[in-house]
Amino acid sequence: MDYRAIIFDLDGTLIDHVAAAGRAARTWSRELGFTGDQTDRWFEIERRWFDAYERGLVSHPEQRRGRTREFTGDDTLTDAECDEIFGRFLTLYREAWTAFPDAEPALRRALATGARVGVLTNSVAEVQSAKLRRTGLDLPGVRLLASGDLGVAKPRPECYRKALSILGVAPHEALMVGDSHVNDVAGPRSAGMTAVWLNREGLPAVAGESGIRSLDEFLRT
Ligand SMILES: [Mg+2]
């Protein structure tokens, strides 16, 4: 089957977000005066606030501030103070960005099919486009579609609809791949797209589907 659009998720799919965020959180928490490994606590806080963002309950800046107040244990921090403290985490996170080795070859195979190639990500364009540049994944023809610009996040159906309309294709002409079964597989399928689950960690099958373990398996058949 030939697709007119091939859409990749970014974090966990093309970029090793967990490794980068973990490394940043370790340094940041030490700088904030915490002892011991705070990464599990940070990831738990991130997951909860990011879920709230994805469900449309808080804005993207609000989830950052919520995470900062909760992580520091100081809910008297002003928005400006939160932005400054979180800004330091972002600097450390940026320095740790790394592409998965299978990412660039997969993007190149997608481009070689002649399809429009997009990266649909639940974050703000400023951070995500810098991430593509820094890791060398900003290949000509790869279009960034950030939820911060779309005004709606995965897995809400309008998010896929808006992304597809920017790419100028119908749902049945589009293929999506990503590491989140909810955001990158179930959501796109509900919107009428084809989707492949990238299961890098070998997580248990979802509804009998175990996915592919690497992007090296993507666009090979
Ligand atoms: Mg992801």
From TrEMBL:
It holds the Pfam family Hydrolase. Gene3D superfamilies: 1.20.120.1600, HAD superfamily/HAD-like. One of its GO terms (molecular function) is hydrolase activity. Keywords: Hydrolase. InterPro entries: HAD-like_sf, HAD-SF_hydro_IA, HAD_sf, S-2-haloacid_dehalogenase. It comes from the Bacteria. NCBIfam families: HAD-SF-IA-v1, HAD-SF-IA-v3. This is HAD family hydrolase. It comes from Corynebacterium pygosceleis. The lineage of its organism: Bacteria, Bacillati, Actinomycetota, Actinomycetes, Mycobacteriales.
